[in-house]
Design brief:
The complex is a heterodimer of chains A (246) and B (928).
Chain A (H helix, E strand, L loop, with lengths): L13 E6 L8 H11 L8 E2 L7 E2 L3 E8 L6 E8 L7 H4 L6 E3 L6 E3 L9 H5 L6 E3 L4 E3 L5 H4 L12 H5 L5 E5 L6 H9 L15 E3 L23 H8 L5
Chain B lengths: L3 E7 L8 E7 L2 E7 L12 H4 L1 H4 L10 E3 L7 E4 L2 H18 L4 E5 L5 H11 L4 E2 L7 H10 L8 E3 L6 E5 L7 H14 L2 E5 L5 H5 L2 E3 L6 H15 L4 H7 L5 E4 L18 E4 L4 E4 L13 E2 L5 E4 H10 L5 H8 L3 H17 L2 E3 L3 E2 L5 E2 L2 E3 L2 E5 L1 H4 L4 H15 L8 E3 L68 H8 L6 E5 L11 H8 L12 E6 L11 E4 L8 E3 L13 E5 L12 H12 L16 H7 L29 H7 L3 E3 L14 H10 L15 H10 L9 H10 L10 H4 L8 E6 L15 H4 L5 E4 H7 L6 E6 L2 E10 L6 E5 L16 H4 L37 E6 L18 E3 L7
Helix pairs in contact in B: 3-17, 4-17, 5-14, 8-11, 8-12, 8-14, 11-12, 21-22
Classes of the chains: A alpha+beta (246), B alpha/beta (928).
């Protein structure tokens, strides 16, 4: 068992807000995440059978496209999935060694791979499937919220954001402090009705998802289908009668 | 301690051309991210760009020049030196050039250096040159350039900041991969409505506010029906029409005469209109007149003429275009069509965008503000890849003009350097009078009259691919999908060297790859190849490499200089012209050379004009040298920025020896921001037109009149009716007469009209996944984890009818053959359409993938069931499977039938051509 830290009332809750209204499912976030992390402090994210029968590997972020509903009401949803940095992360509390831990100061859930024994209890405890096992090193891996970017003071402040957020071409990913009601991300959640994923499970995810919207253009009631007449209609004739100036 | 560095260059994982910031650690790639200052991507980067690091270390990279040692297609090669490779090619091409230069056919694929490759072809003296536009986007380019002097494709963009209604036709992903995504996010943030007309709900369609699952090939009919509704309700911007289009130009009505359908002109050659204010004819370009858009008027010579708009209004007001009449064919309810037309009218006329920005029109009148119609449209492959795509795209442009929604606030806008005079930069170059001379113009041009076609005295094609002939008169990008079939047909008399760059013509870029590879390796009775010599230049071991006699290994995009030129496919935006360079970030550890360097060396060795001096000494030592010093016209070179001795000239200026350094210091690109008064109405904006002329973007600052009515098309039609010095051969007359209508028409895609639809009732189309769109290397180790095998997708109800369940193996049959694949059912697809991801299936042995890779075993190409020829009809040789106006490859005209395979079918796709991996004997005699 690993204990969760006692959260100070002023502590930050860093996380992502993901906009399902604009995510086009392009996988940019997933690939840029892999690229950043595989060469960075997180260490190599292995690829297995790179050019063979079962190409696979460790990804901190994966995109699923699925359809919901049927007929007129059906729609396609592109759903990026990564660690939600829950407030009640059972993936931490089940860890027998303390390798899986939640930071007190910002709520980020991390793995200390030096003391991970690869028992996989945490991945069984995560209902979101956000943890991936590193077969090459026998340890568990997961999203770090790019902790090596967001606190790197050698980067300009505007660039201290996770790779997935920086690279997202549809600007569907937002990063910030969800404990601060005045932060950009908190406001987005409030304005757009951001929701938790599977709230009934009680993990209290930090990351939020903004639901799809449907813009509409109200128009005046239309005339019934066509006059059925031939030739140019009266509305157009009236328009063509008007004087013009070239 | 590691050494870290950063370099700025341009991505080439697809055609989008984003700026990238490349991080190196001890000289090795560490990380690639978007360049935040770059005008295209503003810091974002897609999946492909982020996977560039794996392409740079791909095991499929070619490593040395190769000479074929076994039969063509066997994959047996030996490595040779560059000296031997270039020597062999120079000798061969010198002989070709000395006898008949058109026996060199140079075809390039996803290339961004056509300003160079086209110039090479011109100086060599061959008309047989094209790039991949003919199987991608020529319908869009041609329809746009002949109508607006700009085009959707890469030549325009929606006004993301002001549009309130955005219509996407046949676009799930596009060339402008990242700019469109950035723009959609901005539209969404402002609450604009996005409507996607597409048979398949993927990509952008998934986030559209309304998805309209139109039947493939019927978009043009749907658009003409929208026009019908707007005419019916009188929602037409007549002020816009008479100011900026030829709607009021008088069209001669004298059926049977040589001038019927042409624009009436006065003695000075000025187009005429009827001025209602004075009750007399007037020059259509005159200001202050009240031009008639309806009625019939007598010309001074007694003939009669009608405003172009009157012809248009009469045609589309016909009940044949009413929503109720087209709904079933389009697969869209009439009520939906009527509602969408009403929404367009509402936004255009009740919610105009007003910018308090004064500007001056080309007549010198000052306007206090800019008023725009915030209906923006973008269209691409779903329109383009049909044999009726040219007219469908023109229908969309006509719709834009009727709404007054062209380059106004909130509408579609030109990207610099467009607009250009309609229809473009002059006719295609003609063959030289004698070998050794260059063509008189670049090989790809814009014919406006029959005399400019490339045909012989009998009216038969001069070009191998039959571009610019009566079979495809406006084939402004050539017909790359036909070149192998036509070269095979013509044989050694017409073709010696087929030189392909960066195009997988023996596989996923071929219609009918089985037949294409047979033609590539076919011999005559004496064992000589029907296509005598095949050269392939590429960075990777694609399926096509095995069919080369000589392989010229290219570098990856991170290992060379390049320029993204205004002379080619520019990266300018509505905000102003821009261009960019690539710089070598990595040093190749292989015996490879940048293709452009090789072409320049070859041109120097051949002593081509513009590449060698009068004594035959090469003028340029490399592409980088050429980029800086070459001048296409006085002061005009490949790069427009930092010109002149001090680097301050833009567009036009003396070559600047320090130019590349200036680009590098600027992050690899150059951009010129137009002042606010030049940002809209560019076709008639005096300050813009004058500035663009001074920069060398256009030749004159005369206003560009939008072509609602296309007189050039009518000229070809008149020829088909027997008028003029050059007429089509009798067998093609009816075809040209039919398809060269000066107003948009809709017709059933040609293949469908010739196919038994009872037998093949379903439409079949393809697309590429976002993570691989336009990507040269879906074998990439990361990208293939996302999608290593494809499925055929069909509607759930259709699947239920056919007894097909998810993951079942099915046969997809067409008139051209059958392919076996696995099915997946879905909801968001037109009920009568099946589709799949293209270019996932690969041929065993290619791309350095292992023999059991899913791309070989279960990945499939729909190409196997597509033919490059239409069914023969009327006893004539079959036509190519192309648009009859532009020669655009009609990939999406395909119709199929689908059925479940027997339960015991093996767990693999069919057909599976035998494996032909490269077997390369090294010069040092070791087998690899």
């Amino acid at each position: 068992m690993t204990m969760l830290p006692k959260r100070e009332p002023t502590a930050r809750k860093m996380g992502l807000v993901i906009d399902l209204d604009t995510c086009v499912g392009c996988h940019a976030c997933a690939v840029n995440c892999k690229e950043w992390n595989t060469g960075g402090e997180a260490g190599i994210l292995p690829d297995y059978d790179k050019y063979g029968a079962n190409p696979d590997g460790v990804w901190f972020n994966r995109i699923h496209s699925y359809e919901s509903g049927s007929g007129e009401s059906s729609r396609t949803v592109n759903f990026p999935r990564s660690c939600l940095h829950c407030e009640n992360p059972l993936c931490v509390t089940v860890c027998p060694t303390g390798a899986s831990f939640k930071r007190a100061e910002d709520g980020i859930v991390l793995i200390d791979t030096d003391i991970c024994i690869g028992c996989k209890l945490c991945s069984w405890a995560c209902p979101y499937g956000a943890r991936e096992f590193d077969e090459d090193n026998g340890v568990m891996r997961k999203c770090t919220l790019c902790i090596d970017r967001i606190y790197d003071e050698s980067r300009p402040p505007a660039e201290r954001e996770p790779a997935c957020v920086a690279t997202c071409p549809a600007k569907a990913r937002h990063f910030g402090d969800l404990a601060d009601p005045d932060s950009k991300v908190s406001k987005l959640v409030k304005e757009r009705g951001g929701t938790d994923l599977l709230p009934e499970l009680g993990y209290r995810p930090t990351n939020k998802y903004l639901p799809p919207r449907r813009a509409q253009i109200p128009t005046a009631p239309r005339e019934s289908a066509g006059s059925g007449g031939r030739g140019i209609g009266t509305a157009l004739l009236k328009l063509l009668d008007k004087a013009l100036s070239r | 301690m590691t050494s870290q560095s950063v370099a700025y260059t341009t991505c080439y994982m697809c055609a989008c051309r984003c700026g990238i910031k490349v991080h190196l650690e001890d000289g090795r790639l560490r990380y690639i991210e978007g360049n935040r200052n770059h005008p295209i991507n503003r810091g974002v980067l897609c999946a492909k760009g982020s996977a560039g690091i794996m392409t740079a270390i791909s095991p499929a990279r070619l490593t040395a020049p190769l000479k074929r040692t076994g039969p063509r297609g066997s994959g047996s090669f030996e490595t040779i030196s560059w000296e031997e490779a270039l020597g062999m090619l120079t000798e061969r091409l010198a002989a070709v050039r000395a006898s008949d230069p058109s026996r060199l056919a140079l075809y390039t694929g996803r290339d961004q250096s056509q300003a160079l490759t086209g110039h090479f072809a011109r100086m060599f003296g061959t008309i047989n040159y094209a790039a991949h536009g003919g199987f991608c986007s020529v319908n869009m380019a041609a329809a746009g350039l002949y109508s607006l002097g700009g085009a959707f494709w890469e030549f325009g963009e929606p006004d993301w900041e002001h549009a309130r209604l955005f219509l996407l036709f046949g676009v799930a992903e596009d060339h402008d991969s990242n700019p469109i995504k950035l723009g959609l996010a901005r539209l969404k943030a402002r609450g604009a409505k996005i409507v996607s007309f597409n048979p398949v709900r993927t990509g952008y369609s998934a986030i559209a506010d309304e998805f309209v699952p139109v039947t493939p090939g019927t978009d043009g009919l749907l658009v003409l029906s929208l026009i019908h509704c707007l005419l019916e309700s009188g929602h037409i911007d007549t002020e816009f029409l008479v100011r900026y289009t030829n709607a009021h130009h008088l069209v001669i009505e004298e059926p049977g005469s040589a001038e019927h359908g042409l624009i009436a002109r006065d003695a000075e050659g000025r187009e005429l209109a009827f001025d209602r204010a004075r009750g007399a004819l007037a020059a259509a370009s005159a200001t202050g007149i009240d031009p008639a858009l309806a009625g019939t008027y007598a010309l001074p010579d007694g003939r009669h003429a009608r405003p172009a708009f009157a012809l248009l209004a009469e045609r589309y007001s016909d009940p044949a275009y009413a929503p109720e009449a087209v709904a079933e064919r389009c697969g869209v309810p009439a009520a939906t069509i009527r509602r969408l037309a009403a929404e367009m009218a509402e936004v255009a006329f009740n919610q105009p965008v007003r910018l308090d920005q004064p500007w001056t029109d080309s007549a010198g009148r000052r306007h206090s503000h800019m008023l725009g119609r915030p209906v923006a449209i973008h269209a691409m492959r779903g329109i383009s890849a049909h044999s009726n795509g040219f007219h469908s795209c023109r229908a969309i442009h006509v719709l834009q003009m009727l709404l007054g929604a062209v380059d106004t606030p909130g509408s579609w806008r030109y990207k610099s350097p467009y607009p250009k005079p309609i229809p473009g930069n002059g006719p295609p170059g003609r063959p030289p009078r004698a070998p050794g001379e260059p063509l008189d113009a670049t090989p790809l041009g814009y014919p406006t009259r029959p005399e400019e076609l490339l045909v012989d005295e009998a009216g038969e094609p001069l070009r191998l691919d039959r571009a610019f002939s009566w079979e495809a008169p406006l084939a402004v990008h050539g017909l790359m999908h036909m070149v192998i079939a036509r070269a095979f047909e013509a044989g050694p008399e017409k073709i010696d060297t087929l030189f392909l760059f960066m195009s997988n013509m023996a596989w996923n870029s071929a219609m009918n790859p089985g037949e294409t590879t047979r033609m590539l390796s076919a011999c005559d009775e004496e064992g000589r190849y029907r296509i005598p010599f095949v050269v392939v230049a590429d960075a990777f071991a694609s399926e096509t490499v095995a069919y080369a006699d000589l392989v010229l290994p290219d570098t990856t995009y991170l290992e060379r200089y390049d320029c993204i030129s205004l002379l080619d496919r520019p990266i300018g935006s509505a905000h102003g012209p821009a261009d960019a360079i690539r710089v070598p970030v990595l040093k190749p550890e292989r015996d490879v050379r940048p293709f452009q360097d090789v072409l320049i060396e070859l041109a120097g060795r051949l002593g081509l004009p513009d590449f060698a001096d009068a004594q035959g000494h090469p003028l340029y030592e490399s592409y980088a040298d050429y980029i800086v010093r070459h001048q296409r016209g006085p002061g005009i070179g490949p790069l427009a920025g930092f010109r002149g001795a001090d680097g301050t000239a833009i567009g036009r200026g003396e070559p600047n020896p320090d130019q590349l350094r200036r680009y590098i210091d600027n992050g690899g690109f150059w951009v010129h921001h137009l002042p606010p008064e030049q940002l809209y109405f560019k076709y008639a904006n005096q300050a813009y037109l004058t500035g663009a002329r001074d920069m060398g973007l256009i030749g004159s600052n005369a206003p560009i009149v939008l072509q609602l009515y296309s007189e050039p098309l009518q000229r070809f039609r008149l020829a088909a009716e027997g008028h003029g010095p050059r007429v089509p051969p009798p067998r093609l007359r009816e075809r040209v007469r039919t398809y060269f209508d000066p107003l948009p028409i809709w017709y059933l895609p040609l293949e469908q009209a010739l196919t038994d639809r009872q037998r093949y009732p379903l439409h079949a189309i393809t697309q590429r996944p976002m993570a691989m769109y336009h990507s040269w290397g879906s074998h990439n180790a990361w990208l293939r984890q996302i999608l290593p095998e494809n499925r055929i997708y069909l509607h759930r109800e259709l699947a239920a009818e056919l007894g097909i369940a998810d993951e079942d193996w099915v046969w997809v049959d067409s008139r051209n053959g059958r392919v076996k694949c696995r099915a997946r059912t879905m909801e968001g697809v037109n009920r009568n359409t099946v589709w799949t991801w293209n270019a996932i299936g690969k041929r065993a042995g290619a791309w350095a993938l292992k023999r059991d890779a899913p791309e070989f075993r279960r990945g499939f190409l729909l190409n196997h069931v597509i033919s490059e020829f239409l069914p023969a009809s009327g006893g004539e040789p079959p036509h190519s499977n192309s648009d009859p106006v532009t020669g655009q490859a009609a990939w999406f005209d395909l119709t199929v039938r689908i059925e479940r395979c027997a339960p015991d079918t093996p767990d693999e796709t069919a057909p599976r051509p035998g494996a032909n991996p490269l077997r390369i004997r090294r010069a040092e005699e070791t087998d690899v």
